[in-house]
Write a structure and sequence with these properties.
The complex is a heterodimer of chains A (264) and B (345).
Chain A lengths: L11 E12 L2 E12 L3 E5 L6 H8 L7 E6 L2 E3 L4 H6 L2 E3 L12 H7 L9 H5 L3 H20 L15 H13 L5 E5 L7 H18 L2 E5 L3 H7 L2 E6 L2 E6 L1 H6 L1 H11 L1
Parallel strand pairs in A: 3-8, 3-9, 6-7, 7-8
Antiparallel strand pairs in A: 1-2, 1-4, 4-5, 9-10
Chain B lengths: L2 H4 L2 H7 L1 H19 L5 H32 L6 H15 L5 H24 L7 H23 L15 E3 L8 E3 L1 H23 L1 H11 L1 H6 L4 H27 L8 H12 L4 H30 L6 H16 L14
Antiparallel strand pairs in B: 1-2
Helix pairs in contact in B: 3-13, 4-8, 4-9, 4-11, 4-12, 4-13, 5-6, 5-7, 5-11, 6-11, 8-9, 8-11, 12-13, 12-14, 13-14
The chains are: A alpha/beta (264), B mainly alpha (345).
């Protein structure tokens, strides 16, 4: 196996400039700037409360920045709804699972295809030919994802009855069903055992390799971050204190003081 | 991973004794008239059928509650007013154009109404508390009643669906005198059954139905996979409007379209709560239980009260549903088929 595991990082896909965010008097993010290149795996690390999830919510349009701009595909914007972000190819997973608990694994992943469903409400309601064909077409794509993430055996099970590690995988599958250009993963390996973590790492790398998807991920496990990411942003108390390759970040004194020094 | 499923049924029954007790009481109440000889088998069946039919109509209105509550967590107090409004619109427009056209026009009106509600009420109030939204729907309800009457008047109007009015008598061989069945009620019941089947299929089998369920489950996650909340709300209010229209047509053709139609909502409320607020089958079963329950209470309990305590024993039909639901909520707060909420404290 050679080291060149995939397409080399390309142009800037996402650029965040001087973004700030406050909740009441609490400064969640202070003047944070960084960029994400196409096809790269970008990790965001930092101690609890450093503003990592806020940053993800900013990219995905859940929050609007108080100051600063976010440009995606060269387009700057200040306010965006999450469903508009999804339309532009930004998908995400959630730290605390946000699956549709009452629905089966298959239905959960199928919801990820909603944007691809073009047929009208009436056509669906009357079960007309085009609507049915569309459903079958989308189902094929979903089956491919199910196979990719090796969850064939759980298709029909209600998602709430699956063990945690598998639910995390379904969350990823639902996000992949959007065929995203940029995928945001909020602690994809939190609460997993070693084996589950290894599986998830493999899936993350495979997604990046096979589909060329750009990934931004928040992770606590330093080993994982150092192994799979191309570049790392380090946050502490809402400020960016480090940015670079894993080796650069590991060598930075400020990062060691704020984060690694305490963790190790 | 399903502890509840594997538990032996006897132990489960023991744990659920309040529910069992309530069910036993209901069953006893149901059988008492027959057992005590207060009613002949034929009359007993007639009362039961009458109750079932009334229950179906309650279910139709409760269905509207459930649809909106499921998809947006809003308790829509205006469902009754929507029934009145849709029925009024149909009745008055049918005076000038053929009935079918009037129904279609009323449906379009309800879709327009759904769009307006989303624009003017739901969107500005997004992320407000449940109480705020309930108050907002109370406002919608009062506005809709007033507006409907301002436009179409407040007399009693007729909707003639051409349903057979004459009752039929069945089972003459089985019971003395047979059982009197209203054909109109039978049609109404089949309409309700068809509607429930349609809605269930729509929710389970179509992409939009799936999106609706997704929104009901988790707003934020649904949005982040590209489901636009605003569109979903319009759809769900439009579907609730359609259900209101059907309920309005059926009730209206039975009793005439009048202001009191919007009070039907007050009966559908306990029905929806009994069924569990988030369950479509729950609305149906709840409607049937309350429909039969209150008819029995009115006919037989009233008789018993008059007989034993020398009371008048009237008006039981008005409050019975609420007492039943109150008792039910004490033992099973999530309703028959509702989702059990366990909140972390």
């Amino acid at each position: 196996m050679t080291a060149s595991r995939r397409a080399a990082p390309g142009d800037v896909l996402l650029r965040i400039e001087h973004a700030s965010l406050t909740f009441g008097g609490i400064k969640a993010l202070v003047d944070v700037s960084f960029d994400v290149l196409e096809h790269e795996i970008r990790a965001i690390i930092g101690p609890n409360g450093a503003g990592k999830s806020s940053l993800l919510n900013l990219i995905n349009g859940v929050y609007a920045p108080l100051a600063g701009t976010i440009s995606y595909l060269g387009q700057a914007r200040t306010r965006m709804q999450p469903h508009e972000a999804a339309r532009l190819g930004i998908a995400r997973t959630f730290q605390s699972l946000a699956l549709f608990k009452g629905m089966s694994v298959l239905d959960n992943i199928m919801t990820g295809r909603t944007l691809r469903m073009r047929s009208g409400l009436l056509a669906q309601a009357l079960y007309l030919g085009p609507a049915v064909r569309e459903e079958i077409e989308n189902r094929k794509r979903v089956e491919a994802i199910i196979e990719f993430l090796e969850i064939q055996a759980y298709r029909r099970q209600p998602v709430g009855s699956l063990p945690y590690g598998l639910q995390k995988r379904v969350d990823l599958a639902r996000a992949l069903a959007l065929e995203p250009r940029l995928l945001l993963l909020d602690e994809p390996m939190a609460g997993m055992n070693l084996e589950e973590k290894q599986d998830m790492c493999r899936f993350v790398l495979d997604v990046n390799e096979e589909f060329g998807t750009t990934l931004v991920l928040i992770e606590h496990d330093m080993g994982v971050v150092m192994d799979i990411s191309d570049r790392v942003v380090v946050l502490d108390y809402g400020r960016k204190i480090g940015d670079g390759t894993p080796d650069q970040v590991r060598a930075s004194q400020e990062v060691i003081n704020a984060y690694l020094g305490i963790a190790h | 991973m399903k502890p509840a499923m594997q538990r032996p049924s006897i132990a489960r029954l023991r744990r659920q004794w309040p529910v069992v007790l309530l069910a036993a009481l209901l069953a006893a109440g149901l059988l008492a008239p027959l057992a005590s000889g207060a009613a002949t088998a034929g009359f007993f069946l007639e009362v039961m059928l009458g109750g079932l039919m009334a229950g179906v109509l309650y279910s139709l209105v409760a269905l509207g509650f459930v649809l909106i509550y499921k998809a947006s967590g809003v308790f829509n107090y205006a469902q009754g007013a929507m029934v009145l409004f849709a029925a009024l619109a149909t009745a008055r427009m049918a005076e000038h154009v053929p009935l079918a056209l009037a129904v279609v026009a009323a449906l379009l009106l309800m879709i327009g109404f759904a769009w307006l509600v989303e624009r003017l009420v739901l969107r500005p109030l997004v992320n407000q508390s449940g109480a705020t939204l309930l108050m907002a729907t109370l406002g919608i309800s009062i506005f809709l009643e007033g507006f409907g009457q301002a436009v179409w008047g407040n007399d009693i109007y007729r909707i003639d669906l051409g349903l057979p009015k004459d009752p039929m008598i069945v089972g003459v061989h089985l019971f003395e005198g047979g059982v009197l069945v209203s054909r109109e009620d039978l049609v109404a019941a089949s309409v309700a059954a068809a509607l429930v089947l349609m809605l269930s299929l729509f929710f389970q089998k179509t992409a939009t139905g799936r999106a609706l369920r997704a929104v009901a489950d988790d707003h934020l996650a649904a949005q982040s996979i590209g489901i636009p909340l605003n569109r979903i709300w319009v759809i769900v209010w439009a579907v609730a409007g359609f259900v209101a229209l059907v309920a309005g047509l059926v009730w209206g053709s039975k009793l005439g379209v009048q202001f009191s139609l919007s009070q039907v909502a007050l009966k559908a409320l306990p029905v929806a709560i009994l069924g569990g607020l988030t369950s479509i089958p729950g609305a149906i079963v709840g409607g049937l239980i309350i429909g039969v329950g209150e008819k029995f209470a009115d006919v037989f309990l009233g008789q018993a009260l008059a007989h034993w305590f020398n009371l008048e024993g009237g008006g039981i039909e008005q409050w019975f549903a609420y007492v039943l639901v109150l008792g039910f909520l004490l033992v099973r707060p999530e309703g028959l088929f509702g989702e059990r909420h366990i909140d972390r404290v």
